[in-house]
Amino acid sequence: MTKIGMMSFAHMHACSYAACVNQLADAELTAIWDDDAARGQSMAKQYKTTFMADMKKFLASDIEGVIICSENVKHRAMTEAAAKAGKWVLCEKPLATTVDDAKAMVAACKKAKVGLGTAFPCRYAPTLIELKDRVARGELGEIYAASTTNNGSYPGGWFADDALSGGGATMDHTVHVVDVLRWLTGKEFTKAYCENGRLIHKNIHTDDVGSVHLEMDGGLIVSHIASWNRSKSFPTWGDVTLELIGEKGVIEVDAFNQKINVYSDKQMKAEWANWGGNMDLGLVQDFVAAVRERRDPPVTGLDGLRAVEVTVAAYRSVQTGKMVRVAS
Question: Are 141 and 88 in the same domain?
Fold first, then answer.
């Protein structure tokens, strides 16, 4: 039985990951640590595990891997502490808010000889797995361009506090698509241009829409919209869509459109129940296997670093008003 601990429930994805650990026959959610004790105790009760208020004692326990779902700026400190304690790490995206922090996290885990994974569950969406297979079979030939979106509902709280999040919707919703395109094409991003701002939610102090224009190796052009434009009543948190334009044709994918419409009197709004696969479960299952087999998770810390490099370049472009090179 592989023993997993959760570090922080600040990010809403933590609940899904905790539930996924509890679904696995070969894993146990052994303990929760959270710097918000009331939240940690509540989550421990909900997921039938133990809350530990002392992080040092939590990391000194017999857990073998941790899933970090804190505010973005806290990822580095928690990852370094976990690595020093010899624990495998799965960190929520973005891996960090700066390139230096992301590099430090990768280096700390390498030095400690523990695996570091980045939470990019889109790689486990059935629709995107099918798309990758088609691209690998050469159905599109050379890919010339991509048009993508990641639109979601405004998550509130610390997500709109740049001191904790590192940025708004551009930070929150660009990294997923960057990772998917790297995974699909095997190419790296080279340039970024971005215009963003607060266009929808007038009472926040960060960007809620980002229009991002990117280049990849070989001149592949990418147009991307990242936003918090979905209403509170929207059935799900958002979307990931891609249109790939290649020499042999075009493929359009709505990654989360495998769904059933649910009308819930409990929630008092429509909901989407996805079918055909659980991408969070796939992510967590692969992380648990990596912990057990003492290897790197399939979606690595380096993958997380590459996505951070693109996002940081996008914000640098906003500041300069120019297309900038993606540092690596």
Answer: no
Please, which residues have CB within 8 angstroms of residue 164's CB and are 6 or more apart in sequence? 71, 72, 73, 74, 158
Q: What single letter denotes the amino acid at residue 67?
A: I
Please write the tens of the pLDDT for every residue from 310-320. 999 999 999 99
- Calculate the CA dihedral of residues 255, 261, 262, 263 and round it to 10 degrees: 130
> Taking the chain, what is the end-to-end CA distance rounded to the nearest angstrom?
38
> Which pairs from 317-323 meet CB under 8 Å and 24+ separation?
317/192, 317/193, 317/194, 318/170, 318/194, 318/195, 318/196, 322/193, 323/191, 323/192, 323/193, 323/213
Are 225 and 138 found together in one domain? yes
Nearest Cα neighbor of 173 from 217, 211, 140 is 211
Task: For residues 218 and 235, give the distance between their C-alpha atoms in angstroms, rounded to a whole number.
Answer: 38
Residue 81: pLDDT above 80?
yes
242 vs 68: CA distance, rounded Å: 28
| Structural domains in the chain (count) | 2
- Measured between alpha carbons, how far is 69 from 91 in angstroms, rounded to an integer? 7
Task: List all residues 6 or more positions away from 27 whose beta carbon is below 8 Å from its beta carbon.
Answer: 1, 2, 3, 4, 21, 284, 288
Residue length of the chain: 328
Looking at the structure, do residues 239 and 157 belong to the same domain, yes or no? yes
Beta partners for residue 225, in sequence order: 149, 211
Same-domain status, 141 and 271 = yes
Per-residue pLDDT tens digits for 248-269: 999 999 998 888 888 888 878 7
Compute the mean pLDDT over every residue in the chain, rounded to the nearest whole number.
96
Q: Please, which residues bridge with residue 216 across strands?
A: 189
The Cα–Cα gap between 321 and 62 comes to 50
The CA distance from 216 to 319, in Å, is 21
Domain extent, residue 242, equals 123-277+308-325
Q: In this predicted structure, what is the pLDDT of residue 265?
A: 86
Digit-coded pLDDT (tens) for 144-202: 999 999 999 999 999 999 999 999 999 999 999 999 999 999 999 999 999 999 999 98
